[in-house]
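4.2 Preliminary Data

To establish feasibility before requesting continued support, the project team ran the inverse folding procedure on a target of 183 residues. The structure was first converted into the token representation described in Section 3, and no sequence information of any kind was made available to the design step. The complete token record follows.
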């Protein structure tokens, strides 16, 4: 929880420094300076609170932060090259079906498994992971731009195709996720 005015470094500078080290840290701004709201959101805080903070808002946001932390510690268990591996779900950027395997692209590398993409989607959080094409599952938290027929992701140069079959579900889930982050 950061204020705009702090001794030494401003809250905005502190949040930017935190983001450079760890993009997953949950940040809240608590301040009397409403005019800094847009500048604060560049560092992707969970919320911007204006003093005096109502307990109900604080409680809702702390519960949301707790749920986010819990989700980041869920794992997907796979077998890659005869080795059992637990992948942190929050590190999964996207999954692609190719060469008769599911390729799992994470922030830590690429893993391959014989599990079908239809099996994997059932094991992932449906609020965060969505199928966008017959051979692609994406993590909504890594979505950068959604175009008409493709999307781009943070941490990846890959352009992921979007099929008409899955587009409405993609848009609906993306909006729900973003609204949940801002509320």
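Position-by-position output of the design step:
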């Amino acid at each position: 929880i950061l204020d705009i005015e702090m001794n030494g470094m401003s809250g905005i500078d502190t949040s930017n420094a935190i983001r450079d080290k760890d993009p997953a840290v949950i940040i809240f701004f608590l301040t009397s300076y409403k005019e800094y709201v847009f500048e604060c959101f560049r560092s992707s805080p969970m919320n911007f609170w204006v003093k005096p903070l109502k307990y109900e808002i604080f409680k809702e946001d702390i519960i949301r932060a707790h749920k986010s932390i819990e989700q980041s510690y869920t794992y997907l268990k796979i077998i890659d090259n005869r080795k059992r591996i637990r992948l942190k779900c929050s590190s999964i950027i996207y999954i692609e079906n190719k060469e008769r395997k599911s390729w799992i692209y994470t922030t830590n590398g690429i893993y391959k498994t014989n599990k079908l993409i239809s099996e994997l989607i059932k094991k992932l959080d449906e609020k965060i992971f969505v199928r966008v094409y017959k051979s692609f599952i994406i993590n909504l938290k890594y979505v950068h731009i959604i175009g008409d027929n493709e999307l781009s992701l943070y941490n990846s140069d890959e352009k992921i195709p979007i099929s008409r079959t899955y587009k409405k579900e993609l848009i609906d889930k993306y909006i729900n996720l973003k609204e949940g982050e801002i509320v």
